[in-house]
Amino acid sequence: MQTDPERRLERDWRSMIRISHDFFHAWRKAVADAYGEERAAELELSFWAEVGKGTANAYLERGGDPEDLFRIVDVLRRASDVMGEVSETVRGDDGVRLVHTRCPWPDGYRSRGLTAHCGDGCDAWFRATAYGINPAVTVTSECRIPDGAATCTRLFSRA
Questions:
Q1: Residue 57 belongs to what domain range?
Q2: Any idea what the CATH number is for the domain that residue 46 is in?
Q3: Which residues contact 145 (CB under 8 A, 6 or more apart)?
Q4: Could you read off the pLDDT of 25-67 as tens digits, one per residue?
Q5: Which end of the chain, N or C, is less packed with Cβ atoms under 10 Å?
Q6: pTM
């Protein structure tokens, strides 16, 4: 059973997730209003690639092993889950998959009247992160929720 401080902390964290999503969409709208939708979509990918570089640096600065493919993917799974997504890390003969079964991002785009670009943004984030940790790691999107699939599934493997 959760204590009052634990419930408050969880409620505050859920609010912070919504605030961070609102912050992102406000930034994106400001860019679209000033420069147009096409430029906003381009800058959105650049934004996520920069986030990926930061994620890679944080992983390495904290002593993460650039050769441990499962650990790299599992850290990304944990980051996803912290942000309100539901995902799992799955080992396979061909690499490690990050499988998202639920994600708030597509609904966030739709609620703002936008096509969900989040699949492209996640691809940019995962690829930049993987490359920043170990340039031999490749990321292949197998399916994505915003494209109509039941999951977002990405395969992380060695080139």
A1: 4-158
A2: 3.30.1380.20
A3: 100, 103, 106, 116, 119, 151, 152
A4: 999 999 999 999 999 999 999 999 999 999 999 999 999 999 9
A5: N
A6: 0.90
